[in-house]
Amino acid sequence: MCIRDRLRHADNNHNNFLEIGQHSQWIRAAAVVAGVIVTAGHDNMLKFWNLASGAGCTGAGEAHGHWGVALCGVGDEGHVARASFDGTVRVWNVHTMACKQTLHGHLSVVYTIACLGSGRIVSGGADKKIRVWDLESGACAAKLTGHQATVAAICQVDEGSFVSSSWDCTARVWKSRHGAWECTQVLEGHQDWVLSVCTWDVGAGKRVIATGSNDMTIKLWSCDTGDNICSKFAHYSTIGCLAVSSRGFLLSGGGEGRFRLWNLEGAE
Residue 218, class by beta-carbon neighbours within 10 Å (0-12 exposed, 13-18 middle, 19+ buried)? Predict the structure, then answer.
């Protein structure tokens, strides 16, 4: 059930947004890490914004040719990982605003990245590969194959599992068993690229996965069995992003310029 077509937050002046600054070109990704907002743009810049102090942009890091595509927080020590068009993943310290580490291995654009905990991150991209990285050593701990097209999105389930989605119209559940990663579920049913994915706990040790697609539908799946729980025509265009709130709502964003809030009660 869609309970909101649009959401707005008004400040005391009845404005619908607060502008804190800008990049010189369009912004592709944003993340909140250790109280700092980090934004990545096509101007090759990574910018750090401290809203608590009211200082606005506190600094920027430049990496020539390293256009930011995706960001994720890493651990509790104030680091952010940035995936890029140049095929690398770079880890930055949000306090010093310096690049700490550059991870090489992907053969093309890295479109998505997620933190797995315990000093590990996972990335996927246009080379159809998923890579698990050990940040302590900087080494690729695993290279996972299975998707037949670009890996578009990755979402952590827990420290030992994650979900990936792809332009091959599928999503996959991956689990680590005895130190080795394997695909345990292939979620098939979408008729076009699967561009977004998220997951949440529904109690009793069960989890649900949501996928959003270029076919304009959202599908819910059992993380354990791979069964399709339900499908919903959700937008009039591509569903490019999904997120779950702590209050039990699913937020979806569509290419037609709308975002919608869905009640997840009973989605088990």
Answer: buried
pLDDT in tens, 40-49: 877 777 888 8
Angle at 147 between CA 145 and CA 148, to 5 degrees: 115
Tokens 């095929």 label which residue? 87
pLDDT in tens, 122-171: 999 999 999 999 999 999 999 999 999 999 999 999 889 999 999 999 99
Radius of gyration of the chain (CA): 18
User: Which of 71, 127, 255, 181 has its CA nearest to residue 172?
Assistant: 181
Q: What is the pTM of this model?
A: 0.85
Read off the pLDDT of residues 97-114 as tens digits, 9 standing for 90 and up: 888 899 999 999 999 999
Cβ of 31: how many Cβ atoms within 10 Å? 19
The Cα–Cα gap between 267 and 34 comes to 32
Q: Judge whether 243 and 251 are in contact, CB under 8 Å.
A: yes
Counted residue by residue, the chain has a size of 268
Kindly tell me the sign of the dihedral angle through the C-alpha atoms of 5, 170, 75, 158.
positive
248: how many CB neighbours lie within 10 A of its CB? 13
- Residue 140 carries which side chain, given as an amino acid letter? C
